[in-house]
Amino acid sequence: MEFELSDRVQTVPPSGIRRFFEIAEERDDVISLGVGEPDFATPWAARDAAITSLEKGKTSYTANRGKRELREAIADYVADRFDLGYDPDEEIIVTAGASEAVDLAFRAFVNPGDTVAIAQPSYISYEPGVIFAGGEVLPVPTREEDEFRLTVEGLEEAGADEADVLVLCYPNNPTGAIMPAEDLEPIAEFAREHDLMVLSDEIYAELTYEGEHTSIATFEGMRERTIVFNGFSKAHAMTGLRLGYALGPAEAIGAMNKIHQYTMLSAPTTAQYAALEALDSCENDVREMVSQYDRRRQFVLSRFREIGMDVFEAKGAFYCFPEVPEGFTAEEFAEDVLREQGVAVVPGDVFGDVGEGHLRVSYATGLEDLREALARLEAFVEDHA
Amino acid sequence: MSEREVLELLRENARYSTADIARMTDLEEGEVEAAIEELEAAGVVRGYQAVVDWDELEDERVRAEVELNVHLDRETGYGDIAERLARFPQVKALRLVSGDYDFDMEVEGDSIREVSQFISEKVAPVPEITQTVTHYVMTSYKENGIELGDGEDDERLSFSP
C-alpha cells in the first residue's frame, strides 16, 4: 500500500542540512563546524551516577514529571543561577531533551490557526513544531545592526501584536546573540500589552560569555505567561542522554504533562540520575567547559576578521555567524567550501530567510581542528577572491 | 591574570603561536610575547617538551618509577641527595614525596638492562640511599594531562541542529 501522509507532515520540507550531511559523508577528511553539540564528554561524575543507577537496576519509569529529587534540584539550580522560583511539585516537568519540552508546549498551547511569532534566525525545529501543532508561523526578523536582538520595532513591523505566542531563544542558536535585561524589558512589556504567551528557550543560558543571563520570566507580570525551557545537553555536555525540562505556571505545566504522560510517559530514568549528579557536583566541569568555549570563541572571531569575513560578535552559545563574501549565497558558499576544502558549516538561511548571506559556524570542536578549519576557509576565500 | 591565562594555554599546548594565544585571550600579540618572556625570565616556565607516546614508536624505550628511601645525617639533607641524583641524565623526574618512601624518581633508558644497571651501579651505591624499589612502566595511558593510545574518532554527526 501507499502511505497517505498527513497534510501537516507534507507541509514541512526536509531539513535544510540533510543534503549537506550527505555530501560530508562522501569524504573522510571533513572537519565539521556544523554540529550543535559539545565536543566534551559528559562530566565523569554524571556518567558514574548513570552507571551506578544501572548497576542497581533502577530502570523503571519515574513519575511522569520526573523524579521528585531531580525536580527539587532543578528548582534550587534555577533559583540560584537565574533568579527563577518554581515549585518542584507543580511547576516543573522533566522531558526527553528540551526539544520534547518545546514540542509539548506547541501542542499544549497552539490551536489550529493560532499565530506563533518566532524571532529569526531561529533554531530549525520551532517552525516544524508549530506546523505539526496546526499553528501558523509568523517570522520576526532580527537584524545584525541590532546585534540580532529582538526589538519592539521588529515585533511591530512583523505584526506580532496580533500573534498568540512568541518564541524566543537567547543565547541564540544560530547567531550566538544574547539579550541583556535592558533589551528584554520592552519585549516583556510588549508581550503583556498584547497578551502574548512567551516560550523562552534558554538552553544556552550557562554559555553566556559577557554579562549574566537574564530570563524573561523574571520581569514583572511575565512569570504567569512564560514557559522557560532548559536542559542538560549543552552546558553539561549530555546531548545523547536526552534530558531537558520546562518551567511554568502549574496549569500550563499540567497541560504539557497531560501530553507527556500519554507519549513519553517519563524522561529516561538513567539520564535523570546523571542529571541529578550533574546539578549536584559538576559545577566546576561546566565552568571549565565554558571557559574553553570562550577561548575558542575569541579565536574564531579573530580569525574570521583576519580572513576578511565580517562576523557578528557572538556573546553566547557556541556559534558564530559570519557573513559570506560577495558573490556567494550562503548555500553556495557552504556547499563549495565543503566540496573543495572539506569544511562543514551550515548555511544561515536554514534558520530562516533572514539568515541568508550568513553561515553558522560551531566552535564546539577542539582548537587544533578549529585552527585547521579556519586555515582551509582562508584558503577558500583567497582562491575565490 | 593575563599571565595566568597565557600560562594555562602554554601548558595546554606549548606550540600555540603567540598570535593564537593573543586571539584566545584578547591580548595584543606583543603583550603575549612580553608575558611569555617574563614567565621564562622569572623561572616559572622552565622549558618546553613534547608529550610522547613511546608505544607508538618501534624503538624500545624503557621507563621506570623508582621509590627511594634515604638515611639522613647531620651533614646530608634531602637537597644534597637530590642534587646528586638529578645530575644523571637518565633521571627524568625527581620528587621528594610524603608516605612510605622519600623520593619518587623517573628513569629512562634504551633497555631494561641499561635502566637496571643504572639503578644498581649509580643509584643504589649512593651511601645515604637505604632502599630502592623499581617499577618498570608497562603501558602509559596518560602523560602530562594528555590521554595516550588510539584517539577515538569524533562520532558526532557532521551536521546537527
Automatic annotation (TrEMBL), chain A:
This is Aminotransferase. GO terms for molecular function: pyridoxal phosphate binding; transaminase activity. Coiled coil: none annotated. Its cofactor is pyridoxal 5'-phosphate. Homodimer. PROSITE patterns: AA_TRANSFER_CLASS_1. Gene3D superfamilies: Aspartate Aminotransferase, domain 1, Type I PLP-dependent aspartate aminotransferase-like (Major domain). Belongs to the class-I pyridoxal-phosphate-dependent aminotransferase family.
UniProtKB/TrEMBL annotation, chain B:
Residues 1-79 form the HTH asnC-type domain. GO terms for cellular component: cytosol. Pfam families: AsnC_trans_reg, HTH_24. One of its GO terms (biological process) is response to amino acid. Keywords: DNA-binding, Transcription, Transcription regulation. It comes from the Archaea. One of its GO terms (molecular function) is sequence-specific DNA binding. This is Lrp/AsnC family transcriptional regulator.
